[in-house]
Amino acid sequence: MSDQIPEPPEVAREVFTGEAWSRAEAFAELLAGPGVVRGLLGPREVPRIWDRHLLNCAVVAEAVPAEVRLVDIGSGAGLPGLVLAIVRPDIKVTLLEPLLRRTVFLEECVDTLKLDNVEVLRGRAEEFAGKREFDVASARAVAPLTRLLTWSLPLLREGGELLAMKGERAAEELADAEEQLRSSGVQTAELVSVGHGKVDPPATLIRVVAGRAPEGTRQTSRRKDRGSRAKRARGQ
To answer: Is the separation of the CB atoms in 152 and 139 below 8 Å?
Structure first.
């Protein structure tokens, strides 16, 4: 292992078990090497790869139901999507990322780690609304909750869950999105804490359970989508 990467903490072996352990070590090397060189991870993050990134993402698996289809929105360097695929071979993970250089890196990681439960999809979330449907959507450091709701809810089946990794502003973001949550017809929205005894502090998630959006909202969304397509067709 690279001299820059710290020794993994003891708890890492409890989180990454069996084949997941060697894959986690290999992914740490990929993040610290090609990931830094290509600008997907800052060099100052290398000493914190295990606690701040790998473990912090891995504990999100506590909130992911069994055998689901998960889409990782704005996957970037594969955090948390690739980590979830490593620790949860029972789930199918789609890494959704619009930037080519990032999707190339993700595809290389999937190939190197020999993950057969992962696909890499290039594009923006809104491009796949109505075309793909998932049970769970994950996101980390992508956008405020208000924007994440717009991107993720159209990708989720009714009863599907958005798991947004958030920091100390999580409660504030939840409050700011109250009106949008209500108009989107979600079933529940709450703060969830995961990773107790494994990461310090525990990771904070905003969990939103998708409902059926009110008919007026769906019609407005369809009109906007048609308008956007028309503008693109006119080259605007």
So the answer is: yes
